[in-house]
Each structure stands twice: as structure tokens, then as C-alpha cells.
Amino acid sequence: MPGRIVAAAALLAGLSGCGGTLFGQSAEERIANQENPRTIARAERAGRSTVFDLFAGDDDPNVTLEVNRYLWAASLDVLSFMPVTNADPFSGVIQFGYGTPPGGGRAYQATVLVQDPALDARSLNLSLRTRGGAVDRETQRAVEDAILTRARQLRIRDANL
Length: 161
Hints:
The structure is a single chain. This protein is an alpha+beta fold. It contains five helices and five strands. The chain has helices spanning 2-16, 27-32, 37-45, 69-78, 137-159, and strands spanning 84-88, 93-96, 108-114, 124-130, 133-134. Helix 4 crosses helix 5 (137-159). The longest helix is centred in the C-terminal third of the chain and has 23 residues, at 137-159.
């Protein structure tokens, strides 16, 4: 029994001396092996974080995600007739449950992905469906246009302040 404890302690001491590598791989090798950059960055920061790291601003720009606040707010505004089931402002995903628009008879469900900080149509991805399946392209395009128009209105309103 004491021999096992000594062996385990020796193994842990050997692994703790590895520094910035995981099983002999550096961060660059792990990225080349298609590992998640967020996981790599989190593992590298785990041992050296302090309260002052919050103000350092040394996050990797390839890991930091940003979303356009106008597209985010416009999506919530235009699709306000649907209940929000999940919203993650850090990744830009909003999931809506089934809801019927005012004056409509069909219930819709939507998932919105705001994937870029630019106020651009390419930054917005919308998946709209009914209980019977996917909606036609014209309906989806009309909702996307309504979100983009509302986002531009919000931006103009903020510029006038």
C-alpha cells in the first residue's frame, strides 16, 4: 500500500512539472490537432489567473466572441411574440419556443444566430419553422428583413442621442 502512494505521488509530481504542455504537446500542437481553442486558452489561463487579469485585456482575439447588439435587440423585438427558451449573448444564439404572431393563425418557432459584430445581413442567421416543418423561403426572408430593418432603426436612434 505505501508503495502505491509513493508511485502515485511521483506520477503527480512528474505531471505537475510539465508546465504549458499536456501529455507532451504545446498549445500550437494541440491547435494543429484540431482541439478547441477555447479549451486550450482556458487550460493555459487556469494556473495563472488573478483578479487583475480581468482588466488585462490579453484575450486571444480568435477565442473572444462578439455579437452585434443591434441585431440581438432587434431579434428579441421582432420575435417578441415567441417565448425565449434559451439565450446566450456570448455565443449569439437565441432560441424561441412556439408562438403565434399577432393577426396570424400559424405558430412559429425560431433560432437566431448573431455571429459577427458587424451590422450586416451576413451576421444574421435565422432558422424559422412551424409544427409542420420548415417555412417557405419568402416568409423567412421577410422575418430576416424585419430584423435587419429594426436593427438599423435602433442604431440610428442611438446615433441621434
